[in-house]
Automatic annotation (TrEMBL):
This is DUF674 domain-containing protein. Pfam families: DUF674 (PF05056). InterPro entries: DUF674.
Amino acid sequence: MAQPKALLTLKLLIDTKGKRVIFAETDKDCVDFLFHILSLPVATVISLLKKQQGIMGSLANLYESIENLNETYYIQPNHTKATLLKPTPPPNPGYSAPLMLLNHAPAPTHQKMFYKCRYNCSASYVSEDPKAVCPGCSSTMSRNMSYVAPQQEGSGEGGYVKGVVTYMVFDDLVVTPLSVTSSLTLLNRFNVEESALEEKVVNLGMDQAIKLLKASLQSKTVLTDVFLEDAVGCKPKVEETYAGSLD
Ligand SMILES: [Zn+2]
């Protein structure tokens, strides 16, 4: 398995006249990161965006309502506020660093326990709660079972998509494999003058990841919002390694 990169890299094709990103050329790691957003629990998304101002809608109020409830008085004894507010991170194929950017926990420490009833009961029930009562023999299901995790594929490169391909990510987060024809058609469709085109390599770290997550919920110009909004206060840390016209 390849060593995970600390930062994701995107090569932006920018229309300098229209001040917008046409598309970004990027690799497997970045696409894995984007696709991983879909597997995040809503509570994780809210807690990440709460630090940013102006979270859309009312979900943050739901979240805060749970935070403000007294656990001892109002929450069922078999639950905690944390089960709702900090749900277990979704399973992460390959545990590469970019995918973990948006997860609460840096590594899965949560070991799931299961319980069964007496040895001589033929019913095949298991429970997550050692106080549960077996429907077959009515005894308490207090016998601890060991959970066996499925074998990780050693040959795979981890993540979701295959690594040999270069991918295109559009400003509205449409993701496709890179194709020369589609990028040319695109320049025509967007009516971009070739002289106005500029390439720029940018990094995506935790700050940009959260901005991207926020923009993805409320904007159709996500890459432009995250990487070109220098003028609007919060300046993204952009590392400009190359800038020039295409030809
Ligand atoms: Zn039983």
